[in-house]
Amino acid sequence: MTSMRRRRIGALAAGAAMIAAAVVLVVFLAGQSNGSNATGPTGGGSTPGSSPTSPPPPPTCPLTGEVAKNSRVPNRPILAVKVENLPAARPQTGLSWADIIYEEPVEANITRFIALYQCTDASRVEPVRSARFTDADVLSQFGQAAIAYSGGVPKVQDSLEGAGLVVISASKYPDAFTRDPAREAPHNLYTSTKALYRLVGDRAGGPPEPFFQYTDGSPKGKKTGGIHLPFSTYSDVYWRWNASTKRYLRWHGDVPHTYSDGTQVSAANVVVQVVDVKMTDVHDVNGVASPEVVATGHGTAYVFRGGKMVKGTWVRESKDDRTKYLDAKGHEIKLLPGNTWVELFPSNLPLSVLPS
Fold it and tell me: Residues 111, 147: one domain?
């Protein structure tokens, strides 16, 4: 009697197991037919070609395409600093930490730099000089940003504020700037990005959108040795490709352009934007008219990275638009991750591409 009861119980258990298995199979097949995932919409299921255990890509700096330090992009806007480039201003300090540097023509075809910082701090930036009309035109494409400079005529300062920039001048915030007694004035004013960011506070936005597109692969283009940009005898700029460092090195004529620590100025990418220049009604102390770059419209562009050059077109419809650098097919030219120098080179001056 006991043996028969055990056999009946075993049979009932086996039947229940078969029924449960059938129900599971039906549910699974129904899920497959509906294209759903057994883990549910938030269950972390994988999609074809991906691994459920693959970590997300690390965050990259928006102005360089490089992996951010400590896998964290600082929650702060772009900070631009105006830096002088007369021979008396060299060697400069702090430009090596900038993400992007614009070189702009000013009076008498000499040049000044707009150094853009976001992902990395510079403990010292020197020498800081005055602003120009071109600064507002360039920076307006970066959204809410800040600019630091020594001073400027009222019309220039009005243009900066009109562009929605957080304006930090040495005349208004003298405590953020210091004079270097080892250098001759006015080429001796310096500051730091941390001091400037404290003044920016929450008056501007967070990180900007990525500005360029990047590739980790071998870039396309024609092999060249670099480019010669004769702004003037004071700024006779050469960028020469260095295969051993895989970077472009900067020269003034046959003299290396060096920082205050002795290292030569270098760039992962050099973008030459050929621009028209118009004269304004503002004059310097010598009575020379102050120029302004025409930063909207379109023109010729030369993009150098990885020892190769692509000749294309730059396009910017309005001051609120981002400048795009396009190849002959209309595709945006990709850069290599790293710092970039953008040369705003006047269209009335000759330039020459260096042989490889």
Answer: yes
326 and 256, same domain (yes or no): yes
CATH of the domain at 111: 3.50.90.10
Q: Which residue, 167, 200, 233, sits at the end of a domain?
A: 200
This prediction's pTM: 0.84
Q: Which three-class secondary structure state does DSSP give residue 175?
A: helix
Q: Which residues pair with 340 in a beta bridge?
A: 100, 269
Distance CA(250)–CA(309), nearest Å, equals 16
In a domain, residue 166? The reply is yes
Average pLDDT over residues 22-36: 36
* Amino acid, res. 215: T
Last residue of a domain, one of 165, 200, 235: 200
Q: Considering the domain boundaries, does residue 135 fall inside one?
A: yes
| pLDDT of res. 214 | 96
CA distance 239 to 190: 26
Which residue type is seen at 267? A
61, amino acid identity: C
By DSSP bridging, strand 166-169 and strand 145-149 are: parallel
Q: Which of 273, 271, 245 is nearest to 335 (CA)?
A: 271
| Percentage of the chain modeled with pLDDT above 70 | 85
**Quick one: which of 344, 351, 305, 294 has its CA closest to 327?**
305
* Cβ 182 vs Cβ 301: under 8 Å: no
Residue 335, domain extent: 222-354
Hey, what are 310's tokens? Answer: 């692509």
What is the band of 52 on the pLDDT scale with cuts at 50, 70, 90? Answer: low
Q: Which structure tokens are listed for 129?
A: 């000089």
80 located within any domain: yes
In a domain, 128, yes or no: yes
Q: Do 65 and 335 touch, CB atoms closer than 8 A?
A: yes
Phi-psi region of 116 (alpha: psi -120 to 50; beta: other; left: phi over 0): beta
pLDDT (0 to 100) of residue 16:
42
